[in-house]
Amino acid sequence: MTIEAPPYAVRLATTPEDLTAAQALRYQVFVQELGGNGPMVDHDRGLERDAFDPFFDHLILVDRRIDPASHAHVIGAYRVLPCDRRPAAGRFYSETEYDLTPLLASGRKLLELGRSCVHADHRGGTAMFHLWNGLAEYVLDRGIEILFGAASFHGTDIAALAEPLSWLYRHHLAPSSMRVRALPPGRQEMDLIPADRLDRRAAMAATPALIKAYLRLGGFVGDGAWIDRDFNTTDVCLVMDTGQMSARHREFLVRRAGA
Fold it and tell me: Structural domain of residue 104, as residue ranges?
């Protein structure tokens, strides 16, 4: 799978150099920028990695002007795990944080998303747009029916996040058939501010762009956030039915093409 848009190319990682470059980008974003850490983070080599990486497909955004030997050619990344690989991995990554029983019991084709990031020099342009296109092709090629995965707010100060978490709970809670639940001990209730005191503008301003993009495409959030102290984040589990995403995604592409 390759989608080209000079000077970018979106494709799956196919070499050890590709994966190392994706892990180096993740280190820059999740460790250096956001203060995250983890048991397999390699600070000496500057790589953010974990035990799940060998089981995931790694969707990468490549700057074709950069020599792959430099390990700097990957300027955007997404890792994805189809449900048919869950037995080999032992579980989905998200099962550390969430009870996924409604999704696992649905019998539908699932795809877990995670570790989405773009190099700081390429944000605010078309990089994320190209990654979304690559993800859409991956989903359609494999007949994926439900997308899900943890998406993060930076920091673990719940008082500072009360407005956006409460708004998500009140207005974007997943239907019961898709409502995953955050697990203890990291579980954090999201219904923190009464509905009549919520300010939509303030809530959206405090919500990361990636989460807002999922919501625009018809995504929902599970019940409860999860505080990830290793990564210095507060996570919500986003769930999306691709039947809804497809129509919304086409509208999104039309708007961008005509912008």
Answer: 2-257
Q: Which of 220, 213, 193, 68 lies closest to 135 in space, CA to CA? A: 213
| 198 in Cβ contact with 161 (< 8 Å) | no
How far is the first Cα of the chain from the last one, in angstroms, to the nearest whole number?
Answer: 26
Is pTM, for the whole model, over 0.85? Answer: yes
| CATH assignment at residue 157 | 3.40.630.30
Number of independent structural domains in the chain? 1
Q: What is the pLDDT of residues 153-165, one digit of tens each?
A: 999 999 999 999 9
Task: Give the Cβ contact number of residue 32 at 10 Å.
Answer: 13
